[in-house]
């Protein structure tokens, strides 16, 4: 009878998780939004219409730097430097064209897929021409 009691006691402990409380599973770590790499996509501009856009970006902490270029069939191209910040999945950037006579832009975007895609809006500033538009790009 003593052997049977020990066996059922051990079996009871195993069924209850060893008699102690089981540790809770850690919460999954959210995927960080990283904006680094080469991106390509489309742009819809209020002046030039539909075009193509590319960006090469490097993120360090919450700062992003890089280059950008856009091409339109009817307007030619524009390109320059990118300076941005990323907070969570929000992107806030200034686009400075290489040609100082061309309008600079403020850009606001949302990263998705951990930074594999970005889309948003842009608008010119310090410029006599009001230019705005939308863009959508994916990491290549």
Features:
mainly beta; Lipocalin; eight-stranded antiparallel beta barrel; disordered N terminus
Task: Describe this structure as you would to a colleague.
- With 140 residues, the protein is mainly β.
- The chain contains one helix and eight strands.
- The chain has an eight-stranded antiparallel barrel.
- Strand 5 and strand 6 form a beta hairpin.
- The radius of gyration is 27 Å and the shape is elongated.
CATH class: Mainly Beta
Main sheet makeup = 8 strands, antiparallel, barrel
Order of helices and strands: HEEEEEEEE
CATH architecture: Beta Barrel
CATH topology: Lipocalin
Question: So, the CATH homologous superfamily?
Answer: Quinohemoprotein amine dehydrogenase alpha subunit, domain 2
**What is the β-strand count?**
8
Uncertain runs? 1-16
Shape estimate: elongated
The order of strands across the largest sheet is 1-2-3-4-5-6-7-8
Task: Report the mean per-residue pLDDT as an integer.
Answer: 84
Task: Summarize the SSE layout with pairings.
Elements: H1 2-15, E1 37-45, E2 49-60, E3 63-72, E4 76-87, E5 90-97, E6 105-112, E7 117-124, E8 132-139
Antiparallel strand pairs: 1-2, 1-8, 2-3, 3-4, 4-5, 5-6, 6-7, 7-8
């Amino acid at each position: 009878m003593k052997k049977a009691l020990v066996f059922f006691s051990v079996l009871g402990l195993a069924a209850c998780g060893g008699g102690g409380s089981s540790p809770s599973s850690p919460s999954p770590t959210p995927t960080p939004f990283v904006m680094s790499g080469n991106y390509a996509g489309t742009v819809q501009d209020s002046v030039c219409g539909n075009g193509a856009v590319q960006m090469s970006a490097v993120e360090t902490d919450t700062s992003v730097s890089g280059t950008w270029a856009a091409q339109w069939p009817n307007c030619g191209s524009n390109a320059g430097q990118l300076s941005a910040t990323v907070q969570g999945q929000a992107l806030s950037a200034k686009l400075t064209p290489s040609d100082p006579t061309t309008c600079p832009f403020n850009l606001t975007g949302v990263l998705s897929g951990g930074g594999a895609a970005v889309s948003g809006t842009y608008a010119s500033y310090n410029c006599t021409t009001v230019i705005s538009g939308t863009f959508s790009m994916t990491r290549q």
